[in-house]
Amino acid sequence: MIDGDTLALGDTRWRPLGIDAPEIRQSCKTADGQDFACGIAARDALAEMIGDSPVTCEQTDTDRYGRAVGICTAGGKDLGKELVAIGMAVPYLQYSDAYQSQGEAARDRRLGLWSGNFEMPNEFRKLN
């Protein structure tokens, strides 16, 4: 895991399709206003999700950074879908609406990032 939405498999860097996770250096706020390292938490959630399972990715595109983009799975789970469902990534609607319903459910249930306040990862990148 490079961060919450970048995986290294061999020599290839992968970006799971349709998600955006906090940058590794990004900080968010908990429900009680405390800072927490949400970029690290997103990466750790991805690592925990994968565990010892092999990861496979099916490429659908290449992003502007040269990363392969696609559906990545481990242990029979779609990693992007699962990260959005637990609130540790948001649907990247600019590129895909595949996980929009999971994102809305996580927001409504105040899971993960949604439990406090956070800057959308794409907005954080613009400012930093």
Please describe what this structure looks like.
- Helix 2 packs parallel to helix 3.
- Helix content is 29%, strand content 26%.
- The model has no long low-confidence stretch (mean pLDDT 95).
- The protein has 128 residues and is an alpha+beta fold.
Give me a quick take on this structure.
The protein has 128 residues and is α+β, with helices and mostly antiparallel strands. Helices cover 29% and strands 26% of the residues. The strands form three sheets. Strands 1, 2, 6, 7 and 8 form a five-stranded mixed sheet that branches.
Features of the shown structure:
five-stranded mixed β-sheet; 128 residues; globular; two-stranded antiparallel ribbon; 4 helices; alpha+beta
**Sequence of secondary-structure elements:** EEEEEHEEEHEHH
Helix proportion of residues, in percent?
25-40%
Average pLDDT confidence is: 95
Radius of gyration: 14 Å
Annotation field: number of helices: 4
Class inferred from helices and paired strands = alpha+beta
Number of strands: 9
Strand content: 25-35%
The main sheet comes to: 5 strands, mixed
The shape is globular
Gap from first CA to last CA: 21 Å
Residue runs with pLDDT of under 50 for 5 or more positions: none
Structural topology:
Layout: E1 7-9, E2 12-16, E3 19-20, E4 28-29, E5 35-36, H1 38-50, E6 55-62, E7 68-74, E8 77-78, H2 79-85, E9 90-91, H3 100-109, H4 121-127
Parallel strand pairs: 2-7
Antiparallel strand pairs: 1-2, 3-9, 4-5, 6-7, 7-8
